[in-house]
Amino acid sequence: MPGLTAPSDYSQEPRRHPSLSVNAKTPFNAEPPRSALVSSYVTSSDFFYKRNHGPIPIVEDINRYSLFVSGLLERPKQIMMKDIWMLPKYNVTATLQCAGNRRTAMSKTKTVRGVGWDVSAIGNAIWGGAKLSDVLELVGIPKLTSVTQFGGRHVEFVSVDKCKEENGGPYKASIPLSQATNPEADVLLAYEMNGEPLNRDHGYPLRVVVPGVIGARSVKWLEEINIIAEECQGFFMQKDYKMFPPSVNWDNIDWSTRRPQMDFPVQCVICSLEDVSTIKPGKVKISGYAASGGGRGIERVDVSIDGGKTWMEASRFQKSGVPYISEHASSDKWAWVFFEVTADILQSTEIIAKAVDSAANVQPEKVEDIWNLRGILNTSWHRVKVQASHSNL
Predict the structure, then answer these.
(1) What is the rounded distance in angstroms from the CA atom of residue 270 to the CA atom of residue 268?
(2) CA distance linking residue 231 with residue 294, whole number of Å
(3) Which of 119, 136, 141, 164 could connect to 269 by a Cys-Cys bridge, CB 3.0–4.6 Å?
(4) What is the reported pTM?
């Protein structure tokens, strides 16, 4: 594509923040310290997790960059970056979470395959760009269309990013056309993150942001959009990111029996404490993030300081000083919610947090019940152990 190339090696990688925990160097996959996540409602691009499948693409000339839209529509169209800039710009605050977030904890039950993420493969940003529904109108697909006159029911996003899972082909994923053409779904072709142009790690010059859905569908470094009849047949839609029961292993797996994962389930994580923390006996602040997919709000976060025998309700907020109300116009519907509670902890114990979303979905208690061979969607109760010590050491 004019203006955008995928390097064949890792010699021209961008610089990254030194505090990131690197889970893989080539391709680069890294996450921030958990404490950095709760330091700000909006996650800076430095501390936003990096999920890559190959070398980071390079834009040679933004003025030559274009997007090709084709498939089951009246006529294909090449859309230049300036055409996208001319469309109405929307800012959408949305949390993206890798489906493999908290995979390392799931792996402790039984080994799984995949990048070993701790609890920080998640971030919340203000994405700026054009609504996909407006872009699709440029090629003759009206808003709120679920099928084109030529039988198109899905919108496939193709990256310039090349990956070994696609045998050197491009990364790709799709969403239903009904979602893509619905302005209320807030699917963006984003060119900004937190008021700045996207950086290379996060998809410069143009990426898809699909709010409420696992991060794997928010394709970076967008090269093509295809209107197709069936779901994308790419590796990451058909042979990855599917939820299997604990009974399925690599010998009996049948990928075709499961649909590609889209919405993520309700999730919460304690970020103010590490997995094993030493504390001074007394008042301890327990805080973290909670999020659910599909635009569902967070109705409640429960915290236990006695291993789950008794529970207290944490306060919830998005912006400081503004009370958070689930499913309310004052709340960012696609964004995470912070929770906080202060408790008297006088002895060593296990602290647990669990969230409930607006549909009354609650996190499962045990990771064993949701273990799956790819280690995705670990939304079990989050637990941290604290050792009470009077020592100043």
Answers:
(1) 7
(2) 19
(3) 119
(4) 0.97
* pLDDT in the model for residue 1: 47
Residue 344, beta-bridge partner list: 283
Tens digit of pLDDT for each residue in 6-50? 898 999 999 999 999 999 999 999 999 999 999 999 999 999 999
Sign (positive/negative) of CA torsion 224, 228, 232, 233?
Answer: negative
| Nearest-angstrom CA–CA distance, 81 and 78 | 10
Q: If we measure between CA atoms, which residue out of 302, 265, 280 comes closest to residue 387?
A: 280
289: closest CA among 120, 105, 125?
A: 120
d(C-alpha 206, C-alpha 189), whole Å: 6
